[in-house]
């Protein structure tokens, strides 16, 4: 019997389909989610960010969309255990709602996040410009083109199991870093298939994808590919702002740069543009990057 083809997009939608914990409630609204299985056995940070947004979105009116979130990663998550999401309703005003979400495993929070939601409104409008000289995504190799011949669990995760097609503009840093050590880069990305029309899922999926490459400008600046021996990398905090409607099943340009690295931490800032040139979201993350002393 032929093995069924793997469907990473179905996996993503399954991760975002939280249960309601059989109606259980304390002073929080409770939801439960599963995790993506990974070679490291650790929960992917983008996954738990996306799930907290889905959980908090279920407690606000459908007309209120998330416009910002600020989260701290407190502990490494175990990808083999479910995650419980507790949503506290901080405030519901005339236009805005605020929610605090804790993601729990073994009774301890692994992520703490506050998100804000807003009714549609009119106001001032301007944005950063779409960068010049960016090639079309169709002209660039995807991860499978670059890594598909490797028989390694991480290569399989990046080429087969990711629900997003990620294509670097210029060089990637999977195995090496070229002579261009500027702390800047751009990637095109989109889901590997069509998504449902639910805007909550698109915004949550964008949070999921925002954690893929955001720290790469820090590593690029110091000539460190992902496969660098002895290097320990972990996300510390993550902030995101959604500016305009977005679809993640259309190509998005993810431009990022790192203004600073110090104290075993690196900061990266990112912008998402759609193919029409609209700035749809901005993101910031500080990560722990510990390097063996002999490499400093």
UniProtKB/TrEMBL annotation:
InterPro entries listed in its UniProt record: Acyl-CoA_hotdog (IPR042171), Acyl_CoA_thio (IPR003703), HotDog_dom_sf (IPR029069), TesB_ACOT8-like_N (IPR049449), TesB_C (IPR025652)
CDD domains tied to this protein: Thioesterase_II_repeat1, Thioesterase_II_repeat2
Acyl-CoA thioesterase-like N-terminal HotDog domain segment(s): 41-118
GO MF, one example: hydrolase activity
Domain Acyl-CoA thioesterase 2 C-terminal: 182-288
Pfam families: 4HBT_3, Acyl_CoA_thio
Protein family per UniProt: Belongs to the C/M/P thioester hydrolase family.
PANTHER family assigned to the protein according to its UniProt record, in alphabetical order: ACYL-COA THIOESTERASE, ACYL-COENZYME A THIOESTERASE 8
Protein name: Acyl-CoA thioesterase-2
């Amino acid at each position: 019997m032929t093995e069924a083809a793997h469907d990473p997009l179905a996996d993503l939608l399954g991760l975002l389909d939280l249960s309601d914990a059989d109606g259980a409630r304390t002073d929080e609204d409770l939801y439960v989610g599963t995790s993506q299985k990974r070679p490291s056995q650790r929960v992917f940070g983008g996954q738990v960010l996306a799930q907290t947004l889905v959980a908090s979105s279920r407690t606000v009116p459908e007309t209120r969309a998330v416009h910002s979130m600020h989260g701290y990663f407190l502990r490494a998550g175990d990808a083999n255990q479910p995650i419980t999401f507790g949503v506290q309703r901080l405030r519901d005003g005339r236009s805005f709602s605020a929610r605090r979400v804790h993601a729990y495993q073994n009774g301890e929070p692994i992520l703490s996040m506050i998100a804000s939601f807003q009714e549609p409104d009119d106001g001032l409008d301007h944005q950063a410009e779409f960068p010049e000289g960016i090639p079309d995504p169709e002209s660039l190799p995807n991860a499978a083109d670059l890594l598909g011949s490797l028989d390694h669990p991480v290569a399989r995760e990046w080429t087969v199991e990711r629900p997003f097609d990620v294509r670097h503009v210029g060089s990637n840093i999977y195995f090496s870093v070229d002579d261009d050590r500027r702390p800047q880069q751009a990637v095109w990305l989109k889901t590997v298939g069509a998504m449902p029309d639910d805007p909550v899922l698109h915004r949550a999926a964008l949070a999921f994808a925002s954690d893929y490459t955001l720290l790469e400008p820090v590593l690029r600046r110091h000539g460190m590919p992902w496969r660098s021996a002895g290097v320990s990398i972990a996300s510390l905090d993550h902030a995101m702002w959604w500016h305009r409607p977005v679809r993640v099943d259309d190509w998005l340009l993810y431009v990022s740069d790192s203004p600073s690295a110090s104290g075993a931490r690196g900061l990266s800032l990112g912008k998402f543009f759609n193919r029409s040139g609209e700035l749809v979201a901005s993101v910031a993350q500080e990560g722990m990057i510990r390097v063996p002393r002999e490499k400093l």
